[in-house]
Structure formats: C-alpha cells, structure tokens
Amino acid sequence: ADYGVDMYADVLFTTDNLIETNPSLVERFVRSTINGWSYALENESEAVNYILKYATSSNRDHESLMLRSSAPLIHTGTANLGSMDDIGWGKSQKMLNEQKLLEKQVDFEDLYTMRFINLIYNK
Predict the structure, then answer these.
(1) In Å, how far are 4, 57, 87 from 94, measured between CA atoms?
(2) What CA–CA distances, in Å, run from 102 to 33, 78, 90, 97, 98?
(3) What percent of the chain has pLDDT above 70?
C-alpha cells in the first residue's frame, strides 16, 4: 500500500451454489481459516514447527522472519481478521482498471460477502 498497490490478497473463494446449498461447510472453512491465522500469529514458534513439518527444505529462521513480516499484512489491527469492504475492493478495481488488467467496472456486492466473517465475530 505504501507504493500504491493496495488490494486484497489471499482471498477465499467459493461459488454462490455452495453458499446456498451448504452454508455450514462454508462457515466452518472460513472459521477454521481465521482461527488458524489467529493461532499462527499468536504462537509463532509452534506455527513455524508446523510449517517446517511440510516445508522440509526451509529453515526456522527464514520461516519465523516470513511470519513476523507477514503479520501486519495479515492483521492490520484496524478491522477483524478477514474483514473486507467496498472501499478496499474499490481500490483494487481502480488499480486493475488503470493497469488495463480489468476492462469494466464490477459491482462489489456481487463479488464478496461478509456473512461468514460476521458470524464468526457475532455481528
């Protein structure tokens, strides 16, 4: 964002059909993702142990540095972990339009929902 690239990354995707037919599955997946990131941010050493279990060619110092460096991007402290809004999507769309990577305007309401994040945070 400091250099003009301010957009959502690592976004979870699903289909409208899955949300309609199995909202419980979607909620559990989103809840697990949020809980996993929260736990990793609060328990760096244990999170790195899990990473090294699967990323066998990596090393502890590197993975610890990556997690610490990513933490402020994962949770900015200004909103609940996983939160999104029209302003954020608007910034992304503006940049993509300016770079000619997206040719037309898109209605944000058709692209994302806070339904499951709000359930997690009881809103």
Answers:
(1) 11, 39, 10
(2) 28, 28, 12, 5, 8
(3) 100
Q: Is residue 82 within 8 Å of residue 117, measured between CB atoms?
A: yes
Collect contacts of 60-67 with beta carbons under 8 A, ≥24 apart.
Answer: 67/40, 67/41
**pTM here?**
0.84
**CB 6, CB 91: distance < 8 Å:** yes
Cα(42)–Cα(35) distance, integer angstroms: 11
Q: What one-letter code names the amino acid at 105?
A: Q
Closest by Cα among 34, 20, 17, 19 to 79: 34
Say if residues 47 and 40 touch (Cβ distance below 8 Å): yes
pLDDT tens-place string over residues 21-80? 999 999 999 999 999 999 999 999 999 999 999 999 999 999 999 999 999 888 888 889
Query: Which residues, other chains included, contact 106 with Cβ-Cβ below 8 Å and sequence gap of 6+?
Result: 93
Q: Distance (Å, rounded) from C-alpha 94 to C-alpha 7?
A: 10
